[in-house]
Prior knowledge:
This protein is α/β, with parallel strands linked by helices. Helix content is 34%, strand content 16%.
Amino acid sequence: MTYKQMLALDIYPNFQQRLANKRGLARLAMTALPFIPRHAYHPFLSELNLAVRRIANRPRRVRESYKDRRDLMVNIGCGERGKPGWVNVDLFNSPGVNCVYDCRRGLPFADNAVKGIFTEHFFEHIDYTEEVPFFLSECNRVLRQGGVIRIVVPDAEKYVRAYCADGWEDLTLVRPLNPDHSDVHFGSRFNTKMEVLNAMFRQYFEHKFAYDFPTLEFLLFRYGFSEVQNQSFGRSTLPELAIDSPDRASESLYVEAGKSAFRD
């Protein structure tokens, strides 16, 4: 079997489809090192790219710009879903992003300066042992008393229960799939249900950990939050935080916690 034949399995991350859209050096980088598996060097190149972006965006200057700001609503890892009037944070420039910053090791806000933190399908992209402790500790630091954090991630329990059910019907309800088992959002075509689970657990190298409610509850209590609640789509103890994306609702887990006790 040739190297190209080995790369032809048409599941996420759709290597052949991505390769067809690449030109020049980008195409060379995806094909020139068959003797070094791409899964070994691509994560390193990705982190190198993030490091360059982090330095180029001058994090000290970003922190300085927020040192006196208060009552902030913060959307972390917003991508193209920035909200007017919010601090929309991402390390990649996109429409709506107004704060370019790497949040994995810190946040650029003052103590007790933030009213609410929303993060949707970002938390699973940070490392469980090296980055989660920093991130949650920083969220706790910047939240004011009574502030709320809302974390939205893929719900591993939903996926596992659907996998254990007979047939594909339950899994299709969790992760929207076309009749040929191709992914509605990403285009990948899955051959087995276990491939779907691995796309959620791993998403190539991009997902670092899979979460259920007990695990998020443990983490939030561990890093100083209180009154951890298993919420649902569009429902929040702080109404402004209910900005969930409808297209991710079927697969998502919604968890909230406060810096001090709060009620529904």
